[in-house]
Amino acid sequence: MAEDSLDVVGIGNAIVDVLAQTDDAFLAAQDLPKGAMTLIDAGRAEELYAAMGPGVEVSGGSAANTLAGLAALGGRGGFVGKVRNDQLGGIFRHDIRATGVTFRTPAATDGAPTARCLIFVTRDAQRTMATYLGASVELGPDDLDAEMIAAAKVTYLEGYLWDAPAAKEAFLAAARQAHESGRKVALSLSDPFCVERHRDSFVELIGGHVDILFANEHEICSLFQAEDFDRALQAVRGHCEIAALTRSAKGAVVLAGDEVHVIDAEPVDQVVDTTGAGDLFAAGFLYGYTRGEGLYDCGRIGAVAAAEVISHFGARPEAPLDRMISERMAAG
Hints:
By secondary structure, this protein is α/β, with parallel strands linked by helices. The chain has 13 helices and 14 strands. Helix content is 40%, strand content 22%. The N and C termini lie far apart (37 Å).
C-alpha cells in the first residue's frame, strides 16, 4: 500500500446493529439504563432480541460508523476489526466494503460469534444500547494491519474496545506503529460508563499515545471527575495535541494549545435518532483534518455530518455528505 494512500484507519468493534423503536416502559421493564451502552452476554442478547419490536439490521460499531462517514465525504479509509465466519460476519464485511472502506481482517473460524448491538430508540431520539461483543473483543496485536497503519495519516481508536485485554495490547501496538511512521493517533472515549471503568488507564493512554481526543460533554467530565464542562475543558489542556469536545445541541468546542474554537450545532428540522452523532462528528472532523483544514472548519464539517445522521433512523449517512458539506461551508 502506497505512502499516504489512506486518510484514516479505524480500529474498533466489528458489530452488526439491530435497531428498533421502543418506549421508556420497555427500557424500565428490561432494566436498561436509558441513553447508555450495557454489555451483555450471549444468553441476554437472545432474550432481548426476542422481546424487542421489529428491527432493522445494519453493520455498525462506533469506529466503523466513523469510517463509513469518512468514505461518504470522499475520504479514504481502512478498518481493522474481528468478525466470525458466520452470517452476521458476512453482512458486516459486505456492508463496510460497500461503503468504500478497505477491510481485510481475516474472519475467525472458531470461538464466539460476530458481535451484535441491540439499539432501542425512544420518541425523544435517545438510543439505549445492549451490546454482545462476541468475536470483536478477540482482536489482538496479531490482527493489526501494519501496512494500513503506516499508510494512514491518522489511526483512530475506539474507546469501547479498551475493555478487552488483548485489544488494549493492540491499541498500544497500533499507536507505536503509527508514531514510528510519523502519523497521528486519535481516540474516541465512546461512552461515560466506559470512561468510569477505565478512567486511570484512559488518562495514561491519552497522555502517552493520543494526539487527537474525541469526547462528548459527559465523557470528558467523567474522565476528569469535573463538576461541569468548563472545568473539564481546562483539565484536558496539555494531555493531547487536540481535543474535540461535543455538547449535543450546544455544539462543540475544539482545543489545541492556546486555541479555543466554539462551533455551533447545525440546525435540523427534526432529531429522529442520535445514534452515531459522535461517530459522524469524528468522521467530518478527521476528513477536514487530513485535508489540512483549520480546526474551526474541521469542527464545522463534523457538525454538519452529525446533523445529517441524527435527522434519520440509523447510524450511517443517507444523504450525499460531500455535497451537503460543500453547500453548508459555502453558505458560511
